[in-house]
Amino acid sequence: MIQIRKATESDSQSLAELNQAFNRVNRPSDQIRRVLQTSGATETVLVAEESGAVVGFACFQTLHSICYDSPWTEITELYVRQTHRRSGVGKALVGEAVRQAQESGSSEIMLRTNVKNEAAKSLFTQFGLEPALKSCFASV
Prior knowledge:
5 strands; Aminopeptidase; 32% helix; alpha+beta
C-alpha cells in the first residue's frame, strides 16, 4: 500500500536517486538534506512510500503576494519510479498536494508539464487542471 507523507532528512538518499532518474542531475544527498532542513517555509516535498521504499515524490510551493488576498500553489516537480507508474502513485501525490493547497487557502493551483507528456496531462485533468496560456522562460 502506498503512503504519502512529507519528506524528512532521512529521505535524502532516496530523493537524490529519484532526482537523478528524473532530471539527470547528480545532486548529492547531503545537499538535498540541507535543503530539506531549510526549505520548509517555501517548499513542501512529499514522498510516496511502499514497503519502506520511496517510489516517488512531488514538490510544491504555496506563494503569497501583496497583490492578492489568497495565496496560490505551484506544483513544481512530480516523479514516480518507472516500476510504479500507472499504479496510482502519481495520483496520490498530486491529490495530497491539491488537498494541502486547498487547506492553505490557495485560490489557484498551477503546474507545468511538457506538452508531449500525455500521461501527465491525463493525470492533471483528473484534478480539474486545464491547459492555460504559455509561459515565457529564459535561463539566467
